[in-house]
């Protein structure tokens, strides 16, 4: 009798454990047509670890299982490494996808109301998002930022702004704001919009990333001092920059192989030629992890102004503490070292410098 009771108890224990396991972890499964046997790649984070899974379709069926204690983005990529689809999961989610793989925004989804809302937003703006993807590919090939890309990004920002202001209590609002708005290049207006969203509608992972961006922005806020640092020059000596400066300073942060930087250098060369001996000093700072790629640019006229290297790239303590959020990026200071401009758009930079230098020239003539 005791053996029978023990056996029954063991069976119930297995059932309990099995049910318990069903509630842990997440799963994303789907039958996607027209994958043609090509895999999808899924990337997500869990407890500060990055996971990369390769999903090989079996007759179009794919399956991803993992752990996510809090709401976490899962980014899917196509076999050619281009972005495919982004979903949000947490433990307990059982998401099912079905449809034509060639139309990710049209997929039928079950098991996540949030992801349904996300796909609906993408579906409503499909032509705009597809145009953006296409234009980004063209920009990557050409290495030149187009006016059309800027216009498309502006249109998308307006769509997101309209959604956020109308859905202040929606988790999707914070997701769209972080994923689709120019938070790295133009943070202040994004932060103003972010503040209208209910705190309960902001996932922890976005809270952490937003505080990081705010800290970066504070360090590079207009009228704060940018100086008191040193970088390595071509003679392996430390070049120190302490305020006040003798003239207006333009610090440009970049890496070799970045096509955007090559475009910016044309503008920087023009600025250096026009104002390099008339009140403007240009300093380009390479963020290569090691110096070999940077050194290959020395002795050429490809890099305008004074060329320096930040030892260790983004791991350099000065860079980490400076607030520089990405590359390429520029910071302009006055002679006191106060930041008067910052950003990523080189066309805007050129217009700003020309206006500043023109104003300085007029004041000088007036004083005489």
Q: β content, as a range?
A: 15-25%
Low-confidence stretches: 3-22
Number of helices: 11
Distance between the termini: 111 Å
> Sheet bearing the most strands, described?
5 strands, mixed
User: Mean pLDDT across all residues, rounded?
Assistant: 85
Strand order of the largest sheet: 13-12-11-14-15
**Radius of gyration from the alpha-carbon trace, in angstroms:** 26 Å
Helix percent band: 40-55%
Overview of the molecule:
With 368 residues, the protein is α+β, with helices and mostly antiparallel strands. The protein is 42% helix and 24% strand. It contains 11 helices and 15 strands. The chain has helices at residues 2-22, 113-124, 126-142, 147-166, 171-180, 187-194, 204-219, 259-275, 292-295, 317-322, 346-367, and strands spanning 26-33, 40-46, 49-55, 61-66, 72-77, 83-89, 94-100, 108-110, 229-232, 238-241, 248-254, 280-286, 306-309, 329-333, 339-343. A 5-stranded mixed β-sheet has the order 13-12-11-14-15, covered by helices on one side. A 4-stranded mixed β-sheet has the order 4-1-7-8, covered by helices on one side. The relative contact order is 0.08.
């Amino acid at each position: 009798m005791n053996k029978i009771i023990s056996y029954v108890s063991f069976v119930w224990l297995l059932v309990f454990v099995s049910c318990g396991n069903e509630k842990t972890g997440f799963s994303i499964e789907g039958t996607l047509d027209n994958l043609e046997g090509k895999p999808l790649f899924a990337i997500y984070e869990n407890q500060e670890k990055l996971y990369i899974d390769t999903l090989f379709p079996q007759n179009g069926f794919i399956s991803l299982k993992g752990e996510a204690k809090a709401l976490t983005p899962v980014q899917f990529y196509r076999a050619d490494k281009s972005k495919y689809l982004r979903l949000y999961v947490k433990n307990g989610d059982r998401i099912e996808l079905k449809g034509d793989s060639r139309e990710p925004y049209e997929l039928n989804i079950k098991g996540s109301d949030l992801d349904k809302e996300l796909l609906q937003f993408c579906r409503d703006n499909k032509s705009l998002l597809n145009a953006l993807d296409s234009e980004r590919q063209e920009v990557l090939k050409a290495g030149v930022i187009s006016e059309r890309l800027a216009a498309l990004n502006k249109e998308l920002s307006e769509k997101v702004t309209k959604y956020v202001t109308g859905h202040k209590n929606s988790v999707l609002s914070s997701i769209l704001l972080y994923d689709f708005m120019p938070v790295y290049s133009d943070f202040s207006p994004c932060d103003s919009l972010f503040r209208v969203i209910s705190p309960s509608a902001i996932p922890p992972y976005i809270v952490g990333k937003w505080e990081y961006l705010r800290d970066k922005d504070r360090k590079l806020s207009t009228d704060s001092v940018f100086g008191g640092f040193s970088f390595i020059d071509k003679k392996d000596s430390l070049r120190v920059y302490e305020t006040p400066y003798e003239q207006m300073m333009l610090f440009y942060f970049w890496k070799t192989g970045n096509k955007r930087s090559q475009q910016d250098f044309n503008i920087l060369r023009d600025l250096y030629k026009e104002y390099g001996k008339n009140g403007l000093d240009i300093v380009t700072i390479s963020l290569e992890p090691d110096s070999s790629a940077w050194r290959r640019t020395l002795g050429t006229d490809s890099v305008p102004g004074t060329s320096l290297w930040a030892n260790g790239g983004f791991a350099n303590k000065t860079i980490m503490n400076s607030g520089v959020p990405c590359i390429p990026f520029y910071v302009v200071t006055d002679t006191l070292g106060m930041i008067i401009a910052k950003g990523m758009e080189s066309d805007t930079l050129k217009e700003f410098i020309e206006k500043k230098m023109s104003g300085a020239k007029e004041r000088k003539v007036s004083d005489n």
